[in-house]
Amino acid sequence: MKVFLRKDIEGVGFGGEMVKVTEGYARNFLFPRDLAVEITAHNEESYTKKIKVVENRKEAIATETSMLAEKIKSLKVTLNRKMHDDGKLYGAVAPADIAEALKAQGVNVAKNQVIINKSIKTKGAHKVVIKLTARLQPELIVSVHPE
Description:
Elements: E1 2-5, E2 18-20, H1 23-30, E3 36-38, H2 44-74, E4 76-81, E5 88-93, H3 95-104, E6 114-115, E7 120-122, E8 124-130, E9 139-146
Parallel strand pairs: 4-9
Antiparallel strand pairs: 1-2, 1-3, 5-7, 6-8, 8-9
């Protein structure tokens, strides 16, 4: 079944694309959540026009996002936390802490975009990924120092 995706769906496609999915997936998952619209012979032409508009918009957003990714790569985030004498933190650094530190430097990201592979519980430099899009995920070095 051909559907027009309204939002990005990981593993299926990006918002504004026309993709083929199984009928059960479309009827049981995509349509009830308003994530897609069925493409019929009557509405295929109008959605084809929408795809062209969405592609132009995506191109502009991709340029802005790639510029933001370059800015994030060049930033250094330093966090001062209370620690034990052996260099371990009293509590782990949360994604919200990193999002706030980035906001202070002029980069607005949501806390759910900050991906920490291994929890940060010690002092030193740690790699953190900022998920801007499914394809664009710049890395950032977060330095944790004692207060």
